[in-house]
């Protein structure tokens, strides 16, 4: 949560112009979306299911 606050502070609350603040929110959400995408890809790679058809045949 601290990193998210720093991102918002840097891109949003340092701006004085309302239009620049809205652009800062857009940038912040893109950063959060990219972070979530990276975590999703890493999760899929790390926890990939290793299917072994021979194991299924021997248990049934």
How would you characterize the overall build of this protein?
The protein has 60 residues and is mainly alpha-helical. The protein has one domain. The protein is 80% helix and 0% strand. The chain has 3 helices and no strands. The protein has helices at 2-13, 18-46, 53-59. α1 (2-13) runs antiparallel to α2 (18-46). The longest helix has 29 residues, at 18-46. The model has no long low-confidence stretch (mean pLDDT 89).
Number of domains: 1
The major β-sheet equals: none
Order of helices and strands: HHH
Gross morphology is rod-shaped
Mean pLDDT: 89
Helix tally equals: 3
How many distinct beta strands? 0
Low-confidence stretches: none
Residue fraction in strands? under 5%
Structural class call reads mainly alpha
Helix content: over 70%
Specify Rg, calculated over alpha carbons.
Answer: 21 Å
Distance between the termini: 48 Å
Write a short abstract of this structure.
With 60 residues, the chain is mainly alpha-helical.
